[in-house]
Amino acid sequence: MKLSLNKSNPAAVSLLIVEAAKSSNELNVQIEWCQTNELTLDKHNGISFTAPRSIARYLARCVPGMYGESVLQRTEVDHWLDFSERLNCSTDFDAALTYLNQVLAPVTFLVGHSVTLADFAVWSALRASGQWSSMFAENTAPVHARRYFDFLSNQDEFLAVNQKLPAVKAIAKKEATNRKEEGKFIELPGAEKGNVVVRFPPEASGYLHIGHAKAALLNQYYQQTFEGKLVMRFDDTNPAKEDERFEEVILKDVDMLGVKPDIFSFTSDHFEKILQYCDKLIKDGNAYVDDTDGETMKAEREQRKESKNRSNDVEKNLSMWSEMQNATYFGQMCAVRAKIDMKSDNGCMRDPTIFRFKAESHPKTGTKYRVYPTYDFACPIVDSVEGVTHALRTTEYTDRDDQYNWFIDALGIRRPYIWAYSRLNLQNTVLSKRKLTWFVNEGLVDGWDDARFPTVRGVMRRGMTIEGLKQFIIAQGSSRSVNMMEWDKIWAYNKKVIDPIVPRYTALLKGQTVLITVKGVKTESRMVDAHPKNTNVGQKEVWYSSDVLIDGADALLLKEGEIVTFINWGNIQITKINKQNGEATSVEAETRLDNKDYKKTTKLTWLARFDDAPFIPTICTHFDHIITKAVLTKDDDFKNYVNRDSRLDLHMIGDPCLKNLKKGDIVQLQRRGYFICDQSYQPPSRYTGKVTPCILFNVPDGHKKDMPTSGSKHKEDTPKQTPTSKGKKQDKSTQKQVLPPDGSVSADELNDKITRQGDIVRDLKSKKADKDAIGIAVKVLLDLKVQYKSTTGKDWKSGCHDTIDREVTKLISLKSEFKTLTGKDWKPGTLTEASESGAKKLHQGGSAVKMADEGQGQGDKAELKSLIDAQGEKVRQLKANKSPKDQVDVAVQELLSLKKKYKDLTGEDLSAASARKGVKKEKKSDDKKENKPPAKAEEKSASKEGEREVKKQTRLGLEVAKEDNLSEWYSQVITKAEMIEYYDVSGCYILRPWSYSIWESIKAYFDTEIKKMGVENCYFPMFVSAAALEKEKNHIADFAPEVAWVTRSGKSELKEPIAIRPTSETVMYPTYSKWVQSYRDLPIKLNQWCNVVRWEFKHPQPFLRTREFLWQEGHTAFATKSEAEKEVYIILEHYADIYEKLLAIPVVRGRKTEKERFPGGDFTTTVEAYISASGRAIQGATSHHLGQNFSKMFEIVFEDPETQEKQFVFQNSWGITTRTIGVMAMVHGDNVGLVLPPRVACVQVIIVPCGLTASLAQDVRKALMARCEELCKELEAAGIKVKGDYRDNYSPGWKFNHWELKGVPIRIELGPRDMKQGQFVAVRRDTNEKLTLDLSSASHHVTELLEKIHHYLFDKAKKDLDDHLTVSHDWKAFVSSLDQKKIIQAPFCGEEDCEDKIKKDSAKDVVVEEGAPSMGAKGLCIPFKQPAEIKPGMNCIHPHCGKQAKYYTLFGRSY
């Protein structure tokens, strides 16, 4: 064995084991000192371990007794190994040391009666701790821990190892309170040490954000200051929002913050007591039960109008309260309200709701309670009951304080003291859980831990440290001052924490580097400090060679003869710069390492080419704010300001040292900023051969401007202010003059480069180039503009470089001449009669004088007015075209500026009549944009003109048309129709009951059919060993990049990774080989309904392309080939029936081409569906004949009864997935929403009572409801899936839209008049046709109508398929048909390489669906029903193939 040890941070535990084993010769280990910790096993095919704990465990197991003598002792050793990690954590060190001291009181060794791996681990952790070193040196360490450490340190093996380990710097213990760093913490009124109880009450409806972190840490501050108690209470008063998953997350976040509650509780623990207090309020006349609907109640509270139920007596209130608790139909419509003061100026005091009905099951109490308290009512009660002395609340709750105290006084319970502090307000984000949930559900972020999110997990993923967050919160204190903070401040605190301790590395922009050849350099590597000011960070290896790469932006600034400083190397002189088209292509240089003058040199980062240390592929990710507007007002809809382009990935070549980074490591890339590793580098996969790059997220450092991404700010770029002889700064005129640095690139050269680079950017965008390439080109362009400004002192503008100086000189000359003629300085509009003749010729000079005030021509009233008119028209045009808001804002500002200049010139405002022609159109557009109600006058005007009144937008329906944006339409349909819910793991989705019921219908049909064939259901494990997958490389080849692997169990690395099944052949067939011995054991016909995971990296789409999906997979084995092949086609026909008979979707049956055939199978059959909206086909289901390929691999053999010889079985596999649901939505859905085929709809008919007006008599209302329920039962008895919508808090129109969006096939409308006439109205979802039918034979009519709807949907989809299914024999016609969104049957030779060429050569730069890749024609299948006979001499469709065609093949774009 060979043990490699890191010089700066060696694996001390492993070194101790080797040293201890020397005397017994138990280990033969060769030790090598280098830059990594690694154990290589020579006898085991070069297997190696790199994790220090894994190395230590392996070595300890090789030495008898080192890992303990029994199972119990080995378990104890594992405990102490895990415990040693706590000693490495500065925040947990004190608690861990106290525990260790207690354990050591009666013993000498931690496990047993001799030294073990446990002692080595704990001693090493103590020895590496700066806090322990300080305590040990100051003699303040706990007595037993000190004795233990001292004893071990004097043993031979410890003495030997101690000399080889690097010294540890003692860390002085910080004072308890650093007043300089703390904000203003106001003392709590009435607080006494030991008697303070505070509480932190989060709601488990999302992750904790940093606003919650402030609340938690603030409460903990007072808990610790007053030596009191902290109650952590989950507010679970609303079962509709509660999620136990979020409870677990919040608990972990709180623990991560170091907050240690003394008491943990739920509001639901006190539900019984809260119910009793509600009874008391009702009996005391302080509360009443109200059946007023929500909208009316809200309006009455705003109008300060008392409810009709406010004067009810106690008996009636108690009766209604009883109905609420029993969840009767009437009780569900009621709410309990506190009777406080409806005339109060404080809206919170106007009889607030304190109890309401909730139908959802509660996570803790289930359905025990049907009524739940509001937070405002429960909070004061539980605070009082749990002994809270001081309730800390943000100032936004101030209006509710009177309400809080009223409840306390009315109930006669102890009153806690309310203490308010300002909430944490941050710019360019949202802290509302509702809004954050929207971002997650819309897929705009990766999840709740997205690095752009203000959640605790999010900011930590982006590089925030717990210590940095704590320092920021402490600095805020408990002040009540409300302000809107920028993110810079919080990141500045974080920088103070990370800057002294993070190592420095280098990375360069990929594709933007320039080679420097340095003469006379020896190829070698050296160890240098990883941090220039902190040697404790350790060292890193730097590689040197004659071939060195630098950033292209740095190369632009180099000049021949210049001395530059290469960081971590020394001074280098540039001897020659080779250029092409004005840009440096390569550079030659010589070392000047004896020159130690680094003060005035340009500092450059670099990487040397070194065969033994290849560059690490790296992606540096920069994030922008998720909200574009700094501060959102209460009238702003945050969705209008969502930044949908807030992530930029830059591909880099990285320092070889980056290969050692682990997830969560923070580093500084020199001259680029701080970064946190989000994904560690992995060498090429043995399955795919692809490298996993190191992904680094940029960590902000508090600077308002981004760190440069290429090149750096050189010293001469920023001109310094030279003090005068009196020590003052130069006057303004001197300061404004910025001189270019000596020898730098001239302004003319920079102007040319900017122009060329701008052309490159535009060209890339016009060609729809890769986003990374465009991003890199834009960065280079911005760098050039920065250099231009530093050289000229002016921002670069297109076309202005050559004329600015000339025009400014001309302007100054004209102004001087004007003053000579008139005796006055020239100002806009100051021409006098006396000077008119002399100045006229100046005014005729045109543009020069007009430039005097920013080139707008203010000297001429008429011309200025025309400019205003033109600018006004531009603003209207931008609004009419719905241009981006930032463009509109710029145009409006320019218009306002022109109007101001008009007023300065004329002394009067420009009249609205002349300046705002067409104002109505502009106003209407503007109102629509801002979502504000139109003015009353305009409403009347619009009404007179017959225009439709603008209605309030609920955003419940679809907001985009299917034909305009299919991707967004699909996303809205499946979410608003309640089919899926987004999940916080990208590519995985929650199937809601509305969609899962469709899968259940498919499952019920198919399960019945296959059981008729003798197929049985079973279940095999979802985990697959690597060996099993590796056994069939061809089979796994297509799945390998998508296989998900389990690599850890808890905190321990698995001995070998375990795959999660991408398919189950390799799981099931080893078992088949055990079960099959004789022909009597055949056939085997098994099927399992399960989930599979394929870690899809493409554009994910719910149902269509997901990382986890549900399916059935059948696996059968037969004695003969004919039996197996017969089953393949029977199963395929069942799949076709699912699509055609259940989902009303026509399919094309066929056999897959050789290229698309299932790996490891003899042939694959398929049903292909077509989605006309995208012009793409989609594979519906497949049935594979595997032949004997797998049986030979897994030795599935039987003894032939006739020949007595061993024969391999013939096998099939077949499957269909939840993709079917997405295909159904795509094919049948329209611009109203989902359209469900009747045979899979979980609700085929929805009954909506109509005509329920306020004037309707109560007995008629009851009779109507009873008739609706009777009709519902009648339809149910006929086998129709029906539901009645009797909710009275929604109008019939709202219900119509709701159920249309969800796709229910038939809506029945029944009103009082219909009931009298013995009829009902049936509305078809597929055609929106209204039918008036006889109520007495409703079940017959509805059954018949459902069948008509199914056939109509099928016929419509079949016509769509036929219209887009064409035959082509000509290549041009083939490509043309493809671009017309058709699928084409064309003659094909069947060769795989030819199929690749067809796909490649037919690809056009056409994105057939937003977010999805463009593609060429893929071989979909060889249809069983051929369009014509292939005749001799008929060639393959590809123009360069020339081979005889074998059959017509269906080609098209595909999902």
Sheet/helix structural class: alpha+beta
The side-by-side strand order for the widest beta sheet comes to 34-38-39-45-42-41-40-53-54-52-51
Low-confidence stretches: 173-184, 705-744, 829-859, 912-953, 1405-1414
Number of strands: 54
DSSP strand content: 15-25%
Mean pLDDT: 82
The level of helicity is: 25-40%
Largest sheet: 11 strands, mixed
Task: Please give the oligomerization state of what you see.
Answer: single chain
**Whole-number radius of gyration?**
38 Å
SS field, number of helical segments: 45
In short:
The chain is 37% helix and 19% strand. It contains 45 helices and 54 strands.
How is this structure best described in words?
The protein is α+β, with helices and mostly antiparallel strands and about 1450 residues long. It is about 35% helix and about 20% strand. The chain is built from 45 helices and 54 strands. The strands form 13 sheets. An eleven-stranded mixed β-sheet has the order 34-38-39-45-42-41-40-53-54-52-51, sandwiched between helices. A seven-stranded mixed β-sheet has the order 16-29-30-31-27-28-17. A hairpin with a 6-residue loop joins strand 43 (about 1195-1200) and strand 44. About 35% of the residues are buried. Mean pLDDT is about 80; it is low at about 175-185, about 705-745, about 830-860, about 910-955 and about 1405-1415.
